[in-house]
């Protein structure tokens, strides 16, 4: 993606179902679970580079010893920093107490993370500063371990204000009005209530020590999560560990955020992406299952695990951006979907170059668009195969013509090279623009000046800034007649409020194109009408049922908006003609039929909170407010 955006976080859980002695004997190390967690997190590092966190629980830890441990880091290599620190402690103990370190019970008492269940998190910050305090897991500790809770998630809630009010009505004093804190405290509240309910039930016949054990045996996490999640509006895959050793991952009813699991007699594993599980545990893809939307995979203290319904499942609207860009492309399904996205764009591309393959150079924006590029070139080869067949039948034995037909290949070059990474400490706009212009470099002397058309595919176009400031200017220096930028994703028209950091409408080049067309055609009064409708709807509650901004997009065809986008991203000094081609909505769903969440393209939000966010975002735009819409 040429326009970098922040997006979904990553989660991982490992629950060891055997005593630590088992793994030490079979795999040669008591660090087996920790090593697997390192792999799971490292194989998902694409999901969060602002920070990482890791927590563990020791089941049945003796009184007087820590049963919960947590490390968090915002270092550049946060995963390495966390696990390096754990490894250093382990190796130090082995050197200092070589005989004692052979005893698993001794290790459990002296090494904080020598536990039974582990929780990991990769953070992409969509809100708040990038500090350790904002890194998951968040912990709610208590001297009664069955009331302690660690939570980490891949989520954004659209109704944080309402959730905050619910907590205050319950009598709490939340420390911050952010979704992470409200989620932790809401689950924690109902965990407390479930503890109290069981305590009252067992109190007449048992002493307190006995009651603690009985609570851990009978605590109903399904009931806790049902009560806690009933008011949530957003996309979420929330993972939690209780202090007594039970664990869970709960998924939103629309299945917006991903969560997968694998279990056998040794482990239960949960992660945001299937390839991480496959790589870490060497299992087949067909052994990895998806957590059902609206359900939680609950792992009891005794290691038993099962999916339990928390909320009724809605129509599945899992995020299609996961497939286009965010998830790692070595998942076989995602790989084929990305190829299909590229192939389905081929008819538009061939039409745009007037079928002149001889004078066209094909390339892609590294690195994530490479798979879609392969698909696009498959489409070109399919066209060529049909063209050759027809031409051969018409060649009538002309050997030179036949040789030319058979030897011709589409011209494929690596024109765009990612050469540098912008650093966030550069905040001056002028300096940033100068740096953006040098993020990419190019390969020279492979384009016929004034003759060739250059076709470059990207996985998506969000802001268009890098296209305007860098890529198109850079390609224009090669001297092509025409530059065609191809997006595997449709036009991003609306904010996302379920995980991706795309909440301000003015940042989307498609939205800027829309507003530009309204101005060009003296229809700006329509924007003011929609603004008034949004204002009124936010007061009456109708904003949660209708997306008023869609009315503006209905005034223009997708092709008209694409044409305006091309005008916006073409800098004044660019000599070549510029055209921008976007994937169609129909093409998106044909390529990715099982993940139909498309609200950022269509405005069809899967939750009422999403509808409210888009209307609020438009009001913020019209009032020139810079804040998030949720």
Written overview of the protein:
- By secondary structure, this protein is an alpha+beta fold.
- Helix content is 41%, strand content 17%.
- The chain has 23 helices and 20 strands.
- A seven-stranded antiparallel β-sheet has the order 3-2-4-1-10-9-11, covered by helices on one side. A six-stranded antiparallel β-sheet has the order 5-6-7-8-12-13, covered by helices on one side.
- A hairpin with a 4-residue loop joins strand 7 and strand 8 (247-251).
- Helix 6 (179-202) packs across helix 7 (208-218), helix 6 (179-202) packs across helix 8 and helix 17 (509-520) crosses helix 20 (558-569).
- The longest helix is centred in the middle third of the chain and has 26 residues, at 370-395.
- It is globular, with a radius of gyration of 27 Å.
- It starts with 9 loop residues before the first strand and ends in an 8-residue tail after the last helix.
- The model is unreliable at 422-432 (pLDDT under 50).
Structure keywords:
630 residues; alpha+beta; six-stranded antiparallel β-sheet; 23 helices
Short description:
The protein is an alpha+beta fold. It contains 23 helices and 20 strands. It is globular and about 95 Å long.
Q: How do the strands and helices of this protein lay out in sequence?
A:
Layout: E1 10-16, H1 20-27, H2 32-42, E2 51-57, E3 68-73, H3 78-96, H4 104-110, E4 117-123, E5 138-140, E6 149-157, H5 160-169, H6 179-202, H7 208-218, H8 221-229, E7 234-242, E8 247-251, E9 260-263, E10 267-271, H9 274-281, E11 289-290, E12 295-299, E13 305-309, H10 320-326, H11 332-344, H12 346-352, E14 360-364, H13 370-395, H14 399-407, E15 411-412, E16 416-418, H15 429-436, E17 440-442, E18 453-458, H16 465-476, E19 482-487, H17 509-520, H18 524-540, H19 550-553, H20 558-569, E20 577-582, H21 585-591, H22 599-602, H23 608-622
Parallel strand pairs: 14-15, 14-18, 18-19, 19-20
Antiparallel strand pairs: 1-4, 1-10, 2-3, 2-4, 5-6, 6-7, 7-8, 8-12, 9-10, 9-11, 12-13, 16-17
Helix pairs in contact: 2-9, 5-6, 6-7, 6-8, 11-13, 11-21, 13-14, 17-20, 18-23
């Amino acid at each position: 993606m040429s326009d970098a955006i922040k997006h979904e976080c990553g989660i991982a859980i490992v629950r060891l179902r055997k005593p630590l002695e088992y793994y030490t004997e079979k795999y040669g190390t008591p660090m087996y679970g920790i090593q697997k967690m390192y792999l799971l997190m490292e194989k998902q590092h694409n999901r969060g580079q602002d920070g990482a966190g890791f927590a563990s629980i020791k089941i049945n830890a003796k009184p007087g010893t820590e049963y919960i441990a947590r490390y968090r880091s915002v270092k550049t290599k946060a995963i390495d920093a966390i696990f390096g620190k754990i490894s250093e402690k382990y190796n130090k103990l082995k050197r200092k107490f070589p005989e004692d370190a052979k005893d698993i019970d001794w290790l459990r008492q002296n090494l904080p993370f020598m536990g039974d269940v582990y929780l990991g998190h990769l953070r992409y910050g969509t809100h708040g500063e990038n500090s350790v305090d904002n890194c998951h897991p968040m912990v709610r500790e208590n001297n009664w371990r069955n009331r302690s809770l660690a939570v980490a998630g891949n989520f954004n809630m659209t109704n944080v204000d309402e959730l905050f009010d619910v907590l205050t009505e319950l009598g709490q004093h939340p420390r911050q009005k952010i979704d992470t804190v409200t989620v932790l405290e809401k689950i924690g509240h109902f965990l407390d209530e479930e503890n109290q309910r069981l305590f009252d039930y067992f109190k007449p016949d048992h002493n307190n020590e006995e009651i603690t054990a009985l609570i851990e045996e009978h605590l109903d996490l399904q009931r806790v999560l049902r009560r806690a999640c009933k008011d949530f509006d957003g996309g979420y895959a929330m993972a939690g560990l209780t202090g007594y050793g039970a664990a869970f991952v709960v998924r939103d009813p629309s299945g917006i955020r991903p969560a997968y699991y694998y279990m056998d007699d040794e482990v239960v594993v949960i992660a945001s992406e299937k390839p991480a599980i496959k790589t870490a545990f060497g299992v087949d893809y067909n052994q990895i299952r998806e957590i059902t939307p609206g359900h939680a995979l609950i792992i009891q203290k005794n290691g038993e695990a099962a999916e339990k319904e928390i909320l009724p499942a809605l129509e599945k609207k899992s995020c299609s951006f996961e497939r286009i860009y965010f998830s790692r492309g070595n998942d076989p399904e995602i790989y084929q979907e990305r190829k299909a996205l590229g192939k389905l764009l081929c008819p538009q591309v061939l039409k745009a170059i007037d079928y002149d393959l001889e004078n066209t150079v094909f390339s892609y924006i590294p690195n994530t668009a490479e798979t879609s590029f392969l698909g696009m070139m498959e489409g070109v080869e399919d066209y060529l195969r049909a063209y050759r067949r027809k031409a051969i039948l018409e060649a009538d034995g002309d050997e030179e013509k036949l040789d030319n037909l058979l030897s011709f290949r589409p011209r494929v070059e690596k024109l765009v090279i990612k050469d540098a990474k912008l650093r966030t400490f550069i905040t001056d706009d002028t300096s940033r623009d100068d740096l953006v212009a040098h993020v990419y470099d190019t390969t020279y002397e492979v384009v016929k000046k004034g003759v060739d058309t250059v076709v470059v595919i990207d996985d998506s176009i969000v802001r268009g800034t890098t296209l305007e400031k860098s890529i198109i200017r850079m390609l224009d220096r090669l001297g092509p007649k025409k530059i065609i930028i191809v997006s595997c994703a449709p036009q991003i028209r609306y904010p996302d409020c379920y995980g991706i950091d795309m909440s301000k409408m003015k940042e989307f080049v498609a939205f800027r194109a829309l507003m530009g067309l309204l101005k060009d055609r003296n229809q700006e009064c329509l924007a003011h009408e929609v603004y008034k409708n949004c204002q009124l709807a936010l007061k009456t509650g109708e904003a949660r049922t209708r997306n008023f901004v869609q009315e503006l997009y209905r005034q223009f065809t997708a092709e008209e908006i694409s044409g305006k986008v091309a005008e916006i991203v073409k800098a004044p000094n660019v000599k070549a003609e510029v055209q921008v081609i976007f994937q169609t909505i129909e093409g998106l769903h044909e390529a990715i039929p099982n993940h139909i969440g498309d609200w950022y393209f269509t405005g069809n939000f899967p939750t009422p909170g999403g509808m409210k966010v888009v209307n609020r975002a438009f009001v913020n735009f019209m009032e020139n407010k810079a804040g998030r819409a949720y």
